Amino acid sequence: MIIGIDDFIQAVAVGFVAFLYAAVGHGGATGYISVLTLLGEPSRLIATTALIINTVVSTLSFANYARGGHFIWKVTWPFLISSIPASYLGALMPLSGRVVACIMGGALLLAALRFLLGALGLVKNNDREPIRPPLPLALMVGGLLGLLSGMIGIGGGVFLSPVIIFARWASTKQSSATAALFILVNSLAGLAGRYHAQKLTADTIDPDLWLSMIFAIPMAYLGAYLGASRFSSRNLQILLALVLMIAAIKLFVTGS
Q1: What is the pTM of this model?
Q2: Which residues of 194-222 are buried (b: 16+ CB within 10 A; e: fewer)?
Q3: Which of 2, 19, 138, 240 has its CA 20 to 30 A from that of 229?
Q4: Dihedral angle of Cα 99, 104, 107, 113, to the nearest 10 degrees
Q5: CA 54 to CA 59: how far, in whole Å?
Q6: Where are the domains of the chain?
Q7: Nearest partner of 79 among 2, 155, 11, judged by Cα
Q8: CA-CA distance, 101 to 106, in Å (whole number)?
Q9: 34 in helix, strand or coil?
C-alpha cells in the first residue's frame, strides 16, 4: 500500500491533536473532526473515525491521570451513569442546526477566556477545597452533556471540564481524570448507538485510520503522561483554553 503525502500530513496532524488533548485529559474528537474536515475527508467517514480515535486517546489519558492519583470515583460516577444511555440515544438522533452549534461555540470561547485569564493571573482562581457535586445536579449535567455528545459525535469532556472546574467540584487535574473517563464511556456509547443506527460500517471508517493511530497512540501517551505528572495546573489551564478555542472555532466553521 502506497502512503500519499496527504495521508501522512493527516496522520501527523491527528498525532499533534492527540498530544494536545490528552495532556488535558480529553480525547480530541473536536480536533480530529476539524483535521479531517479541513483535509477534505468525505463527511460519511469523519464522525465514526473521530470517535474511534477518541476512544483510544481517552483511554490513554485516563490511565495516566488515574495512575497519577488524580481520579476520584465519587465525583465521577454520577456523570457516567446518566451520560451513557443519553449518549447512546443522542447517537440515534444526530444534532443539526447552526444556531445550536454557535451557542455551544460561544460558551466554549467564554470558558477558554476564563481559563486563560486565570492562568495569566488576571483573574484569581478559586483555590478553596473542591466540593462534592450534588447528586441530582450531577446526574442532570451528565445526562445533558451525554445526549449532546452523542448527537454531535464527540465524547463530551470538552464541555464537562469547564463545568466541573467552575463549579469547584474538582481540581484541574482531577477534572481531567473525570473528563477522560467520561469521554471514554460516552465514545463507546456513541459508537454503539451509531452501530445500532447502521452508521458504523466499513464504509464509514477512514481506510487510513491505521496510519493515524501509529502517530496518535504514542503522542497521546506522551501528552497524557506530561499532563498528569509534569505540567503545572497553570500550564494545564493554558492548554485547556487552547483546546476549548479549537473546539469553538470548529463549531463556528462547520456548524456541528
Answers
A1: 0.84
A2: beeeebbeeebebebbebbbebbbebbbb
A3: 138
A4: -110
A5: 8
A6: 5-254
A7: 155
A8: 9
A9: helix
